[in-house]
Every structure is written in structure tokens, then in C-alpha cells.
Specification:
mainly beta; two-stranded antiparallel ribbon; 10 strands; 23% strand
Length: 194
């Protein structure tokens, strides 16, 4: 069995959301300096790299991440490869016809190829077309993962897709690294920090 790590590495050069907290790791205890252990500290935004968006992220009344069942983030998944449709830094819409690839499992991962370099924040990204969230809900999708930093346009203020996915009760995982993932069926383990 082959395992793929589809998370973006947290590192000092990971591009944060514009205006957000840059990731930092430092040692605050060192054996070489007399401590009994090496102890690290991280400073970051919970919206850095690969992350799950709780509905509370965009709705004061939405579920916080500790209220999502672990089963949402574990189990059968499929990668749909749309990297031939989008280029790095490109915008555009992910449509229902893009996703009609046969049986859709409860966890759908969309590979756009639009954010290939974690060190550079994209100026534009592909987003879901209107109606896609409802279409996924009708097919039993419980989690949507994308290889871009948001399910909405970078400059979106109304977060239309975030709200549509929440209304469809579909968990959101953003910032995946699907560069090595081919289209097809997988088992996903993507437990968020509680």
C-alpha cells in the first residue's frame, strides 16, 4: 500500500494568507543548554497551509472544529484531477460537469494545480460554480478538499461557497498538496486539530 502526505509543510517560508500571521517555529528548551528535553513552540494562524475550516470561521453561529465528527475526515475519498483545466494562479469555475466522473464517495478532493508553490500566495484561484455544493450534497459528499487556500475567490467578501458548503453540511479542507496524487480512489485521513 502506498501512502501520500497531501499536507503542505509548515515552514518559515510558507506563504500566509495576506495580512495573516506568518508561521514560526522556535526551540524554547534545549538539552544542549541544560534543559531535560528539546521543546519547540509554534506561532501561526490556524488558516495556514493545509487546514480545515470550521463553519464558525465564517459564521458566528457555525460549528466549531471540535464539534465535527472525526468520521468526516476519515474514509473513502476520490481525487478529481482538473489540473488540465487550470494553470498556476488562474481563476475560473469548477463546474458540475467537471465533477461528473462516476461514483462520488463521501470525501471529494479536487486537484486544480493552481497553487503549485507554497512559498508564493496565489493572486487568483479556481472556485466552485453556483449550485455545485447542492449537487455534492445530493450525492452524499460530506467533505470537500481543494489544493488552493480557499473555496472562494481570494478577494471574496461574501464567502458564497463557504456558506453554500455549510448549508449543504459539507466539511471544508483547504490548501492540500495534491501534486503527487493521481485521479482515483483513496482512503483519506485528515483529522484537524481540535
Amino acid at each position: 500500500m502506498k501512502f501520500l502526505d497531501i499536507t503542505r509543510s509548515l515552514a518559515a517560508d510558507l506563504a500566509p494568507w495576506p495580512g495573516d500571521t506568518q508561521f514560526d517555529y522556535s526551540l524554547v528548551g534545549r538539552i544542549a543548554e541544560g534543559s531535560s528535553v528539546n521543546l519547540g513552540r509554534i506561532t501561526t494562524s490556524v488558516h495556514s497551509g493545509t487546514h480545515a475550516d470550521a463553519f464558525f470561521h465564517f459564521d458566528d453561529r457555525g460549528l466549531t472544529i471540535d464539534r465535527f465528527a472525526a468520521e468526516r475526515y476519515l474514509g473513502p475519498a476520490a481525487v478529481v484531477d482538473l489540473s488540465g483545466k487550470f494553470s498556476p494562479g488562474s481563476a475560473g469555475e469548477i463546474t458540475i460537469s467537471d465533477l461528473e466522473t462516476g461514483v462520488i464517495p463521501p470525501r471529494l478532493l479536487i486537484k486544480t494545480g493552481a497553487w503549485p508553490d507554497s512559498k508564493k500566495f496565489p493572486a487568483a484561484i479556481p472556485v466552485l460554480a453556483p449550485g455545485v455544493a447542492k449537487w455534492m450534497q445530493n450525492r452524499g459528499v460530506k467533505l470537500l478538499g481543494l489544493d488552493v487556500p480557499s473555496v472562494d475567490a481570494i478577494d471574496s467578501k461574501d464567502l458564497r461557497n463557504h456558506h453554500a458548503l455549510a448549508a449543504a453540511d459539507i466539511a471544508i479542507v483547504e490548501g492540500l498538496d495534491l501534486g503527487e496524487a493521481e485521479a482515483g480512489a483513496y482512503l483519506l485521513a485528515a483529522l484537524p486539530l481540535k
